[in-house]
Amino acid sequence: MGDWEGPLSTSTQTAELAALRRFYRWARSEGLRPDDPSQGIKPPRREPYARARGLSAEEVARLLAAIPVESAPGLRLRALVLAYLLTGRRRSEVLNLRWRDLDLEGGFYRYTGKDGKERQRALPPPVRLAILLYADAAGLERRPEEAVFPGRWRDQPVDGKYIGEQLRQAAELAGVPLERPLHTLRHSYARALRRVEAPLEVVQAALDHSNLATTSIYLRQLEGQEDPWWPKLAAELGLETGAEASSAPGLG
């Protein structure tokens, strides 16, 4: 083997151990060894959220600028990006929204969490506006049972992989690294909360984590990214007050 600089990554250690075990299984099957010493080696522990990364305000601005808004699909993607950035919801929790889940006048939405429980949260005005602009451009009738973000059929949500690919293309155009497109937006939300010094318990509740330990691990992976995310993002995107949403179509 060649020389290595620094410790091996968890994935490299796992791959090396798998290769070693395959070798000793072969050696035993050929009668070359009576035992398998690799069985005594424990696999490396994977650090939860090891690849967690939040976007900077500049990256968010570039990403949004790269999304074409001259068409309904582009407006849909922009609405989804804002929804993930400003609510911190998981992929399915946003994609599965129905119009009956939105109270546009009251300014809140309902969703079913990972644990199967239904919850209610405030709907940020910029997200509300983006959804209505998309719905108007797409000619959606906003029937209660229909998907807020439909694909080919109005009663079925758009495919998450398709949206992820659209987002990846926009990110590539903007020069923004997005290894896990939709989940990176959730990471960005968590990072923003900590940047404005939200208590750990608030972050836990916002992310629907079952315990503080999970939230602590999650946030620890986001530390060290020096951009003061939330104030800059709000200023660049004009999201400080959300007053512009009051004139959105369908809110009279």
Automatic annotation (TrEMBL):
Entry-linked Pfam families: Phage_integrase (PF00589)
Recorded GO MF terms: DNA binding
SUPFAM superfamilies: DNA breaking-rejoining enzymes
GO biological process, one term: DNA recombination
Keywords, sorted A to Z: DNA recombination, DNA-binding
Domain Tyr recombinase: 50-231
PROSITE patterns per the UniProt record, alphabetical: TYR_RECOMBINASE (PS51898)
InterPro entries reported for this sequence: DNA_brk_join_enz, Integrase-like_cat_sf, Integrase_catalytic, Integrase_recombinase_N, Tyrosine_recombinase_XerCD
PANTHER family reported for this sequence: INTEGRASE_RECOMBINASE PROTEIN MJ0367-RELATED (PTHR30349:SF41), PHAGE INTEGRASE-RELATED (PTHR30349)
Protein family membership: Belongs to the 'phage' integrase family.
UniProt name for this protein: Tyrosine-type recombinase/integrase
Species assigned in the record: Candidatus Nephthysia bennettiae
